[in-house]
Amino acid sequence: MGAPTFKELRRSYGFDEVAIVPGEVTINPDMTSTEFNIGHHAFDVPVLASAMDAVVSPTFATRMHEAGGLGVLNLEGVYTRYEDPYSVLEEILSAPQSEATGLLQRVYSSPIKDDLIGRCISQMNNGTVRAVSVTPQNTKRLSPMAVEAGADIVVVQSTVTTARHMSRSYRGLIFSELRHNLKVPVVVGNCVTYGVALELMETGIDGLLVGVGPGAACTTREVTGVGVPQVTATLECAAARQEYFKRTGRYVSVITDGGIRTGGDLCKSIAAGADAVMLGTPFAQAEEAPGQGFNWGMANPHPELPRGTRIRVGTKGPLKNILFGPTSVTDGTQNLVGALRVAMGMCGAMTIRDLHKADMVVAPSIKTEGKRAQMVQARD
Amino acid sequence: MGAPTFKELRRSYGFDEVAIVPGEVTINPDMTSTEFNIGHHAFDVPVLASAMDAVVSPTFATRMHEAGGLGVLNLEGVYTRYEDPYSVLEEILSAPQSEATGLLQRVYSSPIKDDLIGRCISQMNNGTVRAVSVTPQNTKRLSPMAVEAGADIVVVQSTVTTARHMSRSYRGLIFSELRHNLKVPVVVGNCVTYGVALELMETGIDGLLVGVGPGAACTTREVTGVGVPQVTATLECAAARQEYFKRTGRYVSVITDGGIRTGGDLCKSIAAGADAVMLGTPFAQAEEAPGQGFNWGMANPHPELPRGTRIRVGTKGPLKNILFGPTSVTDGTQNLVGALRVAMGMCGAMTIRDLHKADMVVAPSIKTEGKRAQMVQARD
Amino acid sequence: MGAPTFKELRRSYGFDEVAIVPGEVTINPDMTSTEFNIGHHAFDVPVLASAMDAVVSPTFATRMHEAGGLGVLNLEGVYTRYEDPYSVLEEILSAPQSEATGLLQRVYSSPIKDDLIGRCISQMNNGTVRAVSVTPQNTKRLSPMAVEAGADIVVVQSTVTTARHMSRSYRGLIFSELRHNLKVPVVVGNCVTYGVALELMETGIDGLLVGVGPGAACTTREVTGVGVPQVTATLECAAARQEYFKRTGRYVSVITDGGIRTGGDLCKSIAAGADAVMLGTPFAQAEEAPGQGFNWGMANPHPELPRGTRIRVGTKGPLKNILFGPTSVTDGTQNLVGALRVAMGMCGAMTIRDLHKADMVVAPSIKTEGKRAQMVQARD
Amino acid sequence: MGAPTFKELRRSYGFDEVAIVPGEVTINPDMTSTEFNIGHHAFDVPVLASAMDAVVSPTFATRMHEAGGLGVLNLEGVYTRYEDPYSVLEEILSAPQSEATGLLQRVYSSPIKDDLIGRCISQMNNGTVRAVSVTPQNTKRLSPMAVEAGADIVVVQSTVTTARHMSRSYRGLIFSELRHNLKVPVVVGNCVTYGVALELMETGIDGLLVGVGPGAACTTREVTGVGVPQVTATLECAAARQEYFKRTGRYVSVITDGGIRTGGDLCKSIAAGADAVMLGTPFAQAEEAPGQGFNWGMANPHPELPRGTRIRVGTKGPLKNILFGPTSVTDGTQNLVGALRVAMGMCGAMTIRDLHKADMVVAPSIKTEGKRAQMVQARD
Questions:
Q1: Does the residue B227 lie in any domain?
Q2: Which residues in chain A have Cβ-Cβ distances shorter than 8 Å to B199?
Q3: Complex ipTM, two decimals?
């Protein structure tokens, strides 16, 4: 007992290990509001679509806006590398599986063309909140151009982002300077811990993406061992947001990004303290998605560790059904907003911030036989 | 260690994670009594059949009474919506699987006919304790009619029920008024926490149904993330019952509802503090069940989140064998009352309330290879 | 957090959740002694064969004695019910699977014949320590006859045994009287808790069988929910033995019975405090076993809950190989005593009681893909 | 609760149960150094190849040196038992699977020839750090010959090694004498606990191999129940190294050996306190490996418990790709050093010892369906 150890390990939790406890009061789902904000922009639907080429095209971003959410356009994907991105997408989609990875590596080594930035931003309809995503390396160069061209929100995203990055090849981004210069809301990510979240908020950013190696099966965690399960990561970053809010009165939205597959995962993210979630594959499965039933990882974030495979994810239905139903599937992958409203009702939560107050329990998904699963499904 | 977190999560337990510890005294099973009460009604068998159309018809309720238990008739199913419910059942049973969900949605959108309420209650034999189930929305309208027509027990049931529900479309149910007006025992559910259980008991109700999203695989938990595993839910509600009993001297029966598949699950529910259990699919598998080997979810409790699939559960044998054996199957799905008596014997429990005193341990069902399972089975 | 709960659940552990920690000293396996005692009888090999008809015949008991262990003959099986037990065994072995359960129920409803008791005891060779097993109901009648006929050890065994059993049909066994009257060592079981173990030891018995519902997959636990994983059960009963030894100076052997499949399980039992283990199926797989590759549960211990199926377990090799090797299988099912000696060596344990001092850790068997398992196997 | 128990069990953790937490600072991977030392020898790559005949031949050791790591040659394998080891390897590789185990037992019962020791050491190229492995029984005889013949590092390795071994057949090794006599760095293993690690370091050794029964599926743990999961074992031995360093100022390298399959496992080992790792099968999968796609356990470490099977592990690519990429596989089995650099970057660690400071969390790999795994993979 108590043998000396090199360090203590604290327990962390993922979506499959927790559940939300119903509240002491219940309300009808039609009395709930799911609104959230990024800076001065308000959204009816607390769901963002990931900045992936197979998910968000300029057209898809417009559809997300119409639905009440936000689609983030990747400024370093095919839309800014190719005059005719749709023929490149077509090439990716029609390649044999054995050649897909090599093709993706070639496609994303073509340079970004500055003049295409304005074009793809302008292809988002008037009135759409235009959000674009850049990596830290390219932020200083690309983000002013994007804002100039009409971007309303800038997302600076890499696998792990801190307020203090050291590099030989470029001077670290100073997020406070960036925020000051751009004059539009800035969302930064990804991070997973209290300390980093607090430091990033102190730079003046408007939103924080949460999620590094979220699932046991994700590439980052399998390859590098680095990652924190999403419920714990969200709980820590939400604690930082509360602390920062208490100190400053400024509320920075926390957005859980990665590993969310069902309405249940979405609701758990918000109960854990998120103001919104960011989804990739569930939207790649929308009829309107440019990936047409495929999804793939993007340009390699770490030159020494190439990644990126094309995966068939299938098409599940129109975007509106995925968000609002109606649906006849009972696996939780459709009617995500409906599911959130029902969960809010069961927890007596009128708003997203009310749902933050819900109790949660550790309730592992012990695998049981198909039969039991089926039997319960029939009843509940 | 100890990074700031947004909220603490407590551990919860489901059936597959616990076991009952044998007692310091053992007794012969033939010395045990399994009696329990709802209000002034006493039952020899602490098992209720769920208010599902595939499980409880008026005839099945009579059979349950004869067996010593209680079948609850759903007042919002086919028996009160159709003059000829049996031809509707036949239609559901014979539909191709691909059309079943759509058909169920149509079947349950037909209106409830007030004049059929009396008819189906009267179809339960004389002497049968007649229990009927209604949803909170329809309770004020339907329950007085039901009592008028001879209902002995009224069950008010929805996915999550609290003593304080807020709705735009109808004034919340005041359970204390309801209980006072109906003058028959009222059972309310479902709930899973100490606080809600205590508040509901304070309204004067006679029984409490426990269970929200009981299993990791159940639809409510998959879709909305909401749920508490049944052992923990039962432990909390039983604690509320003890507290309420200590304060008032009135004993409110706690009934674990959902996720119970085997005699082992039943015994664990009672050891966790339940006075009885409510079962769906195990009775849908009875030869006498109207579902004839099928089961399905009922009218949609949440209009924004449609559910309901028809599932083949098979027919396992006559109701009496399921409750009392004899049986040659060793998977725990038959002879449920025999199993309870044996468990009581091993724990030295003469009564249900004695079994409440049994110790329990956390003992997860780690999956082992089929071979090991088989080897142990041969011996034990 | 800290919601009121009906009872606290402590954590318990099974074989697949723990591992033994190597010691601060190591010794060569050839310097270890695996001796243990039941009363005044000493055994070189701390392994008993279960009192099952498919495992221990009079001949097999003789073989176990020659190997240094102990085979327990069931006095309520075919050997005392039939003049020609071997033709009955042949009938069981050759029955089609669909008829096996029914046949077993018939075979074991034939009455025990007093005159066969002496015969089957005398069939164990001269010099063999003759151990026989009886159920509590029949102990007063059968055990004096058995001792009269030459039994050296009497095992009184049922699923759960306590020092205080209540029954309508027979006066509870008083183990202190029994021990006094029989004048041979008495082993009693099964039990799993400190309190019961201590009470049983106080009656003067010489050995204690540990194990109720040992595995998640075992029938007792699936059907009744009752059971305690074997590591925790053994730890508690061993604590009782130490307490009893401290008080009285008398050492009662603790024998872990049930769920042991590999050398690893055997070693963990002893590290958890057992002095020996009792095995069923591993011996049913011996070439010498009367079950010839089959095993089955015996006469139904609970008349209300019939059990007993015939299972093909296969034949793995001669008894000596199972106990001592040599073996080319690496799954831990052969050379059980060799495995124990190696484990003792790695823990620096010269004797069984030295191994009791080994540290253990909780180290769950998380299922990993076959590939990883295979890769590690190649190396270690 | 709190029933008396025979001993307390502390929780231990394996690779699949933990994850590394990103740091408060991030750095570019190209700014990291992965150097480590054994005695006065420095290595750019903190990876050793296991002393297995299918992994390290004299040629392979040279290749490992060229790559910046260290290959350890087994002095008790085919290279010192046979004049023509390559024809013996060929025989092993071409044997039918059913005859492989028997063949291996014969191959490794041929005696070690002293005159071959010098030859195989001299076959490692000039400039290569020549490391050889011996078992404790043969250390006194073989290690001086090896040093004489040019060995630069001696590894003394058995399943479990302590500073105090007792044997009838040979006088225990005194590591302090050995280290003094050999005058080259000595690495000893394997061990898994703080106390043994500290005692071994106090003998003056230069490196410590960590790992006994590392995985639930490994033979040692399945057969004998003995083992400690690698993360916990590494944490304890690293704590001993820190304590010893604090006392003496001498830094003994800790090398995690066994169960490492992916870059993630490697990074977790180092985050847990290891200075380097030792790998078997991942190198058996190199094109340059003598096993040509096979691996097998070596001469039996415990005469009473024979082991050793030949397993097909496949060939994955050239050694350089396994260590440094490029790779198109995303399962973490290639580009191990690239993965380490990326992990160091995410944790803000410039050196191996910086990575020792990273936080870790308990984050079990709960098995989820293939679909979820696939979905996450597409995104992250």
A1: yes
A2: 24
A3: 0.93
